[in-house]
Amino acid sequence: MSVPGWYPDPGGAPGRFRYWDGYTWSSQTTADPRMSPPAEGPGLPASGSRQQKGRSYLGVVLVAVAGLVVLALIVLLAANVYGNRSTVGGPYPSSTVSGWDDSSPTHSPTPPPSLSPSTPPPSAPTPSNSTAPLQDCPSGDPYARADHPSDGRVHGGGLSFRPVPGWDPPHVESGISWGYDLQGQRLTTEPGWFALLAVGELHRSDGFRQPQQAAVAVTSCAVTSGFYAQLSGSRQLWSKAVTVDGKRGWSIRTEVYVDRPELSVPGDVLQVVVVDLGDPDSLALFIGAVSIGDKARIGILNRCLADLKTP
Description:
Layout: E1 5-8, E2 17-20, E3 25-30, H1 57-65, H2 68-82, E4 100-101, E5 154-156, E6 159-161, E7 171-172, E8 180-190, E9 193-203, H3 211-223, E10 231-244, E11 247-258, E12 267-275, E13 282-291, H4 295-306
């Protein structure tokens, strides 16, 4: 995932650069990416205003300006699950203490989706269709923290995992702006790139209706967010039913590719898990991202999955 810096304008203006602060894009652009960050601040919400924290309306507008290329990607990601649900990948590392179960059958991987700009946008879902994808990523409140046990684990939305030694201390993960009660850890892996593990909450009233549909929607929101400036494509590795401590959920793993020649990696392995804990108003979320080909940190991601707990 991208860290703060000047990047080619995602709106497509030739020769212009826009500042990404790790959460939102700046309104100011420049022709010289060596200049200091904009004096206005790149849009990070004030620490005293919880209502504004984690909201990135500018990011939503810029994603819309990115055009039909992004819309085609959202359609095809949804189609991978609601059409032929091709999945791949063996079980996560076994654990005698984990509540995680992904024993559903797996199949061959889906091919990389086309990014053809001629693909039409999805039609509007009917209110009664619980599997219809979102039309837009909602604005949540990652800073809306609930009460959690003081047990040393990373908590959010009713899920928890043991913190990873050597990573940044657990903090509110406001970059996941469509969720609530977000807490996670980051680790900068090289200049301009970081790994992420986080848990939080999704609200059904925002359109996240059930685990499978919500996992597709979160994957789409993450792939099309400012986390992946210069997006060049994606490939779904699996999409399958899982359980955490007996609670039903859905798991999607995707490789996300970016066109960033300065990076030593082609992109991220993006992991999304959504679990129904029985709350009529919300779903629980886990989201992780580590570099493609980084076997050590992919192992950490898998161990984190195996360690997921419910209250």
